[in-house]
Amino acid sequence: MKKTILLALLFLPLLAWRNEDGDSWKKKVDASLLEKVAAGEEAGFLILMQAQADVSGSRLLRSKTEKGAFVFERLRQAARQAQGPVIELLKREKAPYRSFFIVNMIQAEGGLDLIRRVAELESVAHVQDNPAVKMEEPLPAESESIGLREGLEWGVEKINADDVWAMGYNGQGVVIGGQDTGFEWDHPAIKSKYRGWNGATADHNYNWHDAIHEISPLHGDPTTDPNLNPCGLDSPTPCDDHNHGTHTMGTMVGDESDQAKKIGVAPGSSWIACRNMERGYGSPATYIECFEWFLAPTDLNNEHPNPALAPHVINNSWSCPDLEGCNPANFATMQIAVDNLKAAGVVVVVSAGNSGSGCATVNTPAAIFENSFSIGATNQTDTIANFSSRGPVLADGSGRLKPNVAAPGVGVRSSVRNGGFATFSGTSMAGPHVAGLVALIISANPALAGQVELIETIIEQTARPMLSNQDCGEFSGLEAPNAVYGYGRIDALAAVMAALEVVNEEEAAGQVAARVLPNPAHAQAIITAEGLESAATLQVFALSGQLMLQSAWAPGQAFETISLEKWPAGLYLYRLTAGSRSWTGKFAKQ
Question: Which of 92, 130, 440, 445 is most buried, by CB atoms within 10 Å?
């Protein structure tokens, strides 16, 4: 199990600076930023404060709502206490700025003199560049997807999501967040799942945020031409200017495609979204702005934040490469945002990247972080995609194991703009399968909402181990976990079965613990019932209601082994009855 590391500590300096000479302030400023403004030009930059909030107390809270409110208040308090002198300076200089709290930082714009005066403030830890960053484009599919079972997109089928639906769990009651190029909210495959749609009218307050406030300088085209920039700036309604975001959302919650196949892993979930890229170009500030909005969604005026409306899981199918602005000097800024979201009870799913097949190619934020749940891509034969990035993470010197798990990411068909469908490949297509799985797990066991570490561990421990001939660093490909597949390819049915076994200690006290091992099972299953003192009757039923087995248990009997060799694959219900009490459960035979 990964250990949660909360980077930000209240009023603990990130860096210590000593004024030894008149130019010592330059040590706090990115070299790339100094280069931009050296000739008298102005540039955008990020001001990272020394003081960062201590949110470690969220670990002591049980519910997601409590965690979110606690983290939100701590972050806002730290920002208010620390940012005053910087904001006063920016106001005096009439410099545009935006205050953040998910990371205690301020986004501003100005020239060299303003940057110097900001950096000279003792409360400022670092003045960082805010470069334009280009999205890693999805790869064209080499072939159309093929499903073995009629009516299912192959990735949905491969991870056994449909078997979970048959149990009655399809993501109901769970909110998924998408941070991407935007989303065509009224696409027929995802419209009914949008939290802002009630079946008759749309309300985008608290359900949509556009972090794109200016055209990326990498485009160099006007904002007024809808053919060049279809979403404009600060769009008040969900809009996708690229296709990428709509495609990822279809894989998470979508209905049927044009091929009459189910495309979404968790079609019972609802979704909310934030646009962090303008036609594929974003920046560290736009990514962090979306992270902040997800922690406490706001209305369309960006006011009245409400952490109770935060999603349960966020999909992040993007990266910030070193060549485009993210480097060890500013890794910590985005890492703080990821850490604080996890502390607030939100699972942060991140695509591992398409830089394979070499080792140590999981090398960009946010996939490299400990508290990101990073995803590699597999094809229809359960083989790692050649493009899928491998670990370990060397970019920050940690050597940590990544990816965490792998999921279908080759030839994935899903929704795109204008009501269409297309087949793409990439770890961007794999991540949404895992975000959908998180929704299935929480819908099966709502008590797990906000228990990020436990959810991630369930997914890792129930993944199908995959081995490789590729060794990376200290991680042998012939052992699991490894740096190619992580813990393996996800299995939704196994994960949900494990999630259903989780009960809190108060509920478990004084009860008989009845369970099936293993679950899913193959040739045989063992039904156990620790703590049963009286005689009992065991019955096992198929979903059709057919009685498959009935047996009598003697007083004190603790288990029974059942042969499943002649039973068809599928789901089964068991009932153990002792006097007036009974215990029921489900297991799968594969």
Answer: 440
